[in-house]
Fold this sequence. Notes:
The chain has 177 residues and is mostly helical.
Amino acid sequence: MTWYFLLLALVAAERLGELGMARRNAAWSLSRGGREYGRAHYPAIVALHVSLLAGCAAEAVHRPFLPALGWPALALVVAAQGLRWWCVLSLGPRWNTRVIVVPGLPLVAAGPYRLLRHPNYAAVVLEGLALPLVHSAWVTALAFTVCNALLLRVRIRCENSALTYARTADPLLGLVR
């Protein structure tokens, strides 16, 4: 169980690092005229992700480690982290935990964005399902997955609207390759 709590602590530390990076990237975007969209749903996203880690820790105390489930789930967690960081690197200073669009910048179509429209959300879905299952926390996996699906509907709609608005405001924008 100790190693699972260490894994959760590492994920929490990564999230705190991401928040610091997001704050710097937000300053970069806002200094270039960026506009934030979807502020109202952002606290719910933060609460859900904190709840994921808390739920994993609380439920794992009552669940056994099942190697046939835990090891493949851990591999999926690692894959999700790889995809997440591929997204971060592909977006550079435009990556954020918030929806901030800088007018005049073209859409990014490099890295995983050439394959999927929202690859970072695919990483979130994968991690939200796999991280709890590393230690058989199936209730947390199910609850997070359902709540995350509801929030992602709102978030993706918000992000698509923001990006569409930015493109129609400047129809000469192309895709960054």
